Amino acid sequence: MGLFSNIFGSKKKEEVLPPADYGLIKVDMHSHLIPGIDDGAQTLEESIELIKGLKELGFTTLITTPHIMSDFYRNKPETILPGLDLVREEIAKQGLGVTIHAAAEYYLDGGFEKKIKEEKLLSFGKENYLLFELSYLNRPDSMSRVIFDLISAGYKPILAHPERYPYFYDKFEVYKEIVDRGALLQLNTNSLTGYYSPGAKAIAERLIDEGLVSFIGTDTHKTGHVKALGMARQSPHLYRLIESGKLKNITLA
Ligand SMILES: [Fe+2]
Questions:
Q1: Which residue, among 211, 209, 218, 210, has the nearest Cα to 236 in the 3D structure?
Q2: Contact in structure between 136 and 166 (CB atoms under 8 Å)
Q3: pLDDT tens digits, residue range 204-239?
Q4: Residue 1 has pLDDT above 60, yes or no
Q5: How far apart are CA 155 and CA 105, in angstroms?
Q6: Ligand 1 centre from 12 Cα, in Å?
Q7: Of 66, 80, 122, 148, which cross-links 103 as Cys (Cβ 3.0–4.6 Å)?
Q8: DSSP for 31-46?
Q9: How far is the CA of 236 from the centre of ligand 1 (A)?
Q10: Distance, CA 163 to ligand 1 centroid (Å)?
């Protein structure tokens, strides 16, 4: 008895809830849908296939966020905006009924710190939201300074997929510090399915439980992501998060 109650008794039974409804938040603010400029969609056909999939899930406004990095993807408005026009034309031609805007997902490196001071960054929404991501391998020393610099420059920083940085897993208090410094956290919806790793799933659920999540994002690069988003609807954590009405996605509609 002892052994089994330890194994099975310690695991909390998950509540059975209805599937989560993305139609309630309408807006996705993290994806890679501009063809051929990063590791997302490579062709216009692929972009349209992904957009159709997101529409079927209930998203009607997409703010797509190509990578901007100093080395791999040196995107700038000149590479992003013409691609956006192509995608918009095709959406209109096919009558898909989806609104698409473009911003960017900035990778925190030396080049980004320089850009904050010297350039107008690709932000979105009335709040001037600015999406940024960190290295998956090394905790950057400059994160607090970058958050401060972004706020000073008039942006509202959003940290992309905080649950995907393993070096924070045993330092959960860092997430609260980031929020206290004035940044918001954007969870990848697919983390709740275990798509990325069991660790990312556990942290994603804890971030929701502790009320630290302001946005969810699909981070769609390929059809596998759209498929996983369908499965993520079964997550009780996602259901409760969307039903709470606290997500800011809808404010971007
Ligand atoms: Fe991304």
A1: 209
A2: yes
A3: 999 999 999 999 999 999 999 999 999 999 999 999
A4: no
A5: 14
A6: 32
A7: 122
A8: B--STTSSSS--SHHH
A9: 24
A10: 13
CA dihedral 157, 162, 164, 168 (to 10 degrees): 120
d(CA 253, CA 249) in angstroms, rounded, equals 7
Distance CA 104, CA 133 (A): 10
Q: Is the pLDDT at 102 greater than 90, yes or no?
A: yes
Residue in this structure with the two tokens 């300074």, named with its chain if needed: 145
Q: Is 139 helix (H, G, I), strand (E, B) or coil?
A: coil
The Å distance, Cα 239 to ligand 1 centre, comes to: 23
Residues around ion ligand 1, judged by CB within 5 A, are 105, 219
C-alpha of residue 33 to centroid of ligand 1, in Å: 10
Q: Give the C-alpha separation, 203 to 219, whole Å.
A: 17
Question: What tokens does 19 get?
Answer: 């599937």
The alpha carbon of 38 and the centre of ligand 1 are apart by a number of angstroms equal to 10
Q: What is the pLDDT of residues 54-66, one digit of tens each?
A: 999 999 999 999 9
Whole-angstrom distance, CA of residue 18 vs CA of residue 241: 13
Distance set, CA 35 to CA 50, 70, 90, 153 (Å): 11, 19, 12, 30
Q: What is the pTM of this model?
A: 0.93
Element (DSSP H or E) covering residue 63:
strand 61-64
Kindly report, residue by residue over 115-158, the tens digit of the pLDDT.
999 999 999 999 999 999 999 999 999 999 999 999 999 999 99
**Which residue ranges form the domains of the chain, and what is each CATH number?**
18-252 (3.20.20.140)
Q: Is the pLDDT of residue 4 over 60?
A: no
Q: Is the pLDDT of residue 71 over 80?
A: yes
